[in-house]
Design goal:
Layout: H1 2-40, H2 43-51, H3 67-73, H4 77-85, H5 100-107, H6 110-118, H7 133-140, H8 143-151, H9 166-172, H10 176-183, H11 200-206, H12 210-219, H13 233-240, H14 243-250
Helix pairs in contact: 1-2, 3-4, 3-5, 4-6, 5-6, 5-7, 7-8, 7-9, 9-10, 9-11, 10-12, 11-12, 11-13, 12-14
Length: about 250
């Protein structure tokens, strides 16, 4: 009888060890799967893990990318909202200084942008290169996102490390609607210059964007601001010989 009792006690101990170890192994496996899914930008896998009870939603990759950043840029509104409810940090920053709001601004999903702002996402945070969520939205031409950011206090005059403002970014990428929305803002600096002394109007003229140049001039952008070489937007137009651009500037 004694050997049987010893054998039974051994099985009990083994079961207790397995009960203790298995959850730890499962948790480690889930953590690895979470990070792997972030790297792969796999919103389906992230959603599945979250639905299965994964709770460490602020775990990031080595470069600081979080699941919320992935879902925000991946147009995954439901996952983004679920992550926010689960306690995801809306102001987390990756190694480049990027935030979930910046990722959402790139994707252009105003629903995600609004949800992030509602729970405290800071709209004027600048990445390491100085870009803001507004600058990213302006460069992409996401008008609804631009409007939401501006109504939430985004500063249109913040520039990146090279002096480029959201207005310049919108101009450079030929986003007419974005330019028009920014030009209409009270207090916007239409004549802000980048590190080379070029304004948004300089850039519009240089690239032959007639409608954007016209919108800038009608909004009050100056024709007399010189770049570092002393050339004004009007000089740019004259040098390129674009009669239609000269008409936009003078008419």
């Amino acid at each position: 009888m004694l050997p049987s009792r010893i054998h039974a006690l051994g099985l009990i101990r083994l079961c207790l060890v397995l009960v203790i170890l298995f959850p730890a192994v499962a948790a480690a496996d889930s953590l690895e799967s979470w990070v792997r899914s972030i790297r792969a930008r796999d919103v389906t896998a992230l959603s599945t893990l979250l639905n299965r009870g994964f709770t460490q939603v602020n775990v990031s990759t080595q470069d600081g990318k979080t699941a919320l950043m992935v879902s925000a840029q991946g147009l995954a509104a439901k996952l983004s909202l679920d992550l926010i409810k689960a306690g995801a940090d809306v102001n987390a920053r990756n190694s480049n200084g990027g935030t979930p709001l910046m990722h959402a601004a790139v994707s252009g999903d105003v629903k995600i942008v609004s949800a992030l702002i509602e729970v405290g996402a800071r709209v004027n945070t600048q990445a390491g290169n100085g870009w803001t969520a507004l600058a990213l939205a302006a460069a992409k031409g996401h008008l609804l996102v631009i409007q939401k950011l501006l109504s939430s206090g985004a500063d249109p005059n913040l520039s990146d490390v090279f002096g480029w403002t959201p207005l310049m970014q919108a101009t450079e990428q030929k986003r007419l609607a974005a330019v028009q929305a920014l030009v209409a803002l009270p207090g916007i600096n239409l004549n802000a210059a980048n590190a080379e002394g070029a304004t948004a109007l300089h850039r519009a003229v240089a690239q032959g964007f007639v409608d954007i140049a016209r919108a800038l001039v009608q909004g009050g952008a100056s024709l007399e601001v010189p770049d570092q070489k002393g050339r004004t937007p009007y000089d740019y137009a004259r040098e390129t010989g674009r009669s239609e651009m000269l008409g936009a500037l003078t008419g």
